[in-house]
Amino acid sequence: MRLTRAAEYAVRCVIYLSRQGQGVLTSRHEIARQADIPAHFLAKIAQDLAKAGLVEIRQGARGGFLLSKNPAAISLLEVVETMIGEIHLNDCVARPAGCKISDHCAVHRVWLDARDQLRASLRQVSFDQLVTDTSCLPSYPKILLEPEGLEATASTRNDLQ
Amino acid sequence: MRLTRAAEYAVRCVIYLSRQGQGVLTSRHEIARQADIPAHFLAKIAQDLAKAGLVEIRQGARGGFLLSKNPAAISLLEVVETMIGEIHLNDCVARPAGCKISDHCAVHRVWLDARDQLRASLRQVSFDQLVTDTSCLPSYPKILLEPEGLEATASTRNDLQ
DNA sequence: ATATATGAGACCTTATTGATCTCATTTCTC
DNA sequence: GAGAAATGAGATCAATAAGGTCTCATATAT
Q1: CA dihedral B36, B40, B45, B49 (to 10 degrees)
Q2: What HEC string does chain A produce?
Q3: Confidence of residue A133 (pLDDT cuts 50, 70, 90)
Q4: How far is the CA of B99 from the C1' of D8 (A)?
Q5: Nearest nucleotide by C1' from A84 CA?
Q6: What pTM value is reported for the model?
Q7: Quick one: pLDDT at residue A93?
Q8: Is strand D within 7 Å of residue B43 (CB)?
Q9: How far apart are CA A66 and CA A18, in angstroms?
Q10: Strand D contacts (CB < 7 A) among B residues 48-67?
Q11: Is any atom of strand C within 7 angstroms of residue A27's beta carbon?
């Protein structure tokens, strides 16, 4: 088990969408900018989240992503496991078929228990809990950035200084 | 956090040495054969275990490894973290300095709690508990194998059939 | 019809893992 | 002291996965 960058991005994405509210359409580029996620990478992540039924994707002009479920009904575990697969802590737990003695193995049982405990912890946390607090996004409420793809002019850069 | 192959090997190695008993010298090749660990790989692993004070390495002819501590005094957490470093579940937890808002981040706290719980679980398990049960070694009590480097003759092979 | 947005997946770079190999060093035995 | 037997230390290498980018296809608003 390893929390990949993609999984961290997914969590940030869902937090951002949770703040927007269930059913509120938000463009990929807005999410990418605000949650500091590479835009193309976010596209892949959103596809996984959509397959899992967590978000809905709207194509075409003025398209984007929106949350399909209530933030209170989405657990941290769901989002994480959507990205990295079911959590396991070692290969033996992941591939019991390959471990002939896993049923009788004390080490195996320890890892199994630890894994169950970890999953339970993450299952208890839902995204309505995560939006109410200051969380892993650069700022909240969101700040206004320059339009995407437009290089800041000298004057606007000066404005920021 | 990810349990690497090296960490699994280390656990098996320490289990094997725990069965031998604290202070009982065992050659690297015997451990490698019995616990099914690549011998050269085991050398590196043992170096890490020695640095951590878990095993002692005897060089020279009739050298090998031996357990420096009582199996009851060695936790699964010790061995695992010796091999993979202190357990963390994501980068944010591992590098709080790089996360400006980690103190106030709800997600961060969740991971931190989960990590503490996981570490506590592994800390509770000591190797005296692991040797008493059938565990992640091919067989126990150990079987007699041919001397290392010597191909089994047809007759010895037949003896095993 | 066109501009704007995402879909899907190929592709590339980099880091890590797992493993091997070589030479140096240590120690036992004679 | 010499030589055999064992490990030390680290360079090296192949395989895998992660992280990210890019391109072309597709869908939709106007």
Answers
A1: 100
A2: CCCCHHHHHHHHHHHHHHHHCCCCCECHHHHHHHHCCCHHHHHHHHHHHHHCCCEEEECCCCCEEEECCCHHHCEHHHHHHHHHCCCCCCHHHHCHHHCCCHHHCHHHHHHHHHHHHHHHHHHHCEHHHHHCCCCCCCCCCCCCCCCCCCCCCHHHHHHHC
A3: low
A4: 39
A5: D18
A6: 0.80
A7: 60
A8: yes
A9: 9
A10: 50, 57-65
A11: yes
Closest nucleotide to A27 by C1' from CA? C5
Q: How far is CA B82 from CA A49, B11, B50, B79, B85, in A?
A: 36, 10, 10, 5, 6
Phi, then psi, of B68 in degrees rounded to 5: -85, -20
Which residues of B touch chain A, with CB atoms under 8 Å apart? 1-3, 5, 7-8, 11, 15, 76, 89-92, 99, 101, 104-108, 110-111, 113-114, 117-118, 121-122, 125, 129-130, 132-136
Q: Would you state the pLDDT for residue B138?
A: 56
Q: Which nucleotides of D are covered by protein (CB under 7 A)?
A: 3-11, 18-23, 26-30
Chain A neighbors of B36, CB-CB under 8 A: none
- What per-residue confidence (pLDDT) applies to A146? 35
Owner of token pair 């005094």: B73
Q: Is the CB of A95 under 7 A from strand C?
A: no
CA distance B138 to A100: 9
Q: Look at residue B148 in the predicted model and tell me its pLDDT.
A: 37
Looking at residue B109, its pLDDT comes to: 84
Please give the pLDDT value at position A137.
58
Q: With a cut of 50, which residues of chain B have pLDDT below it?
A: 140-161
Q: Tens of pLDDT along A83-103?
A: 999 888 877 665 555 555 555
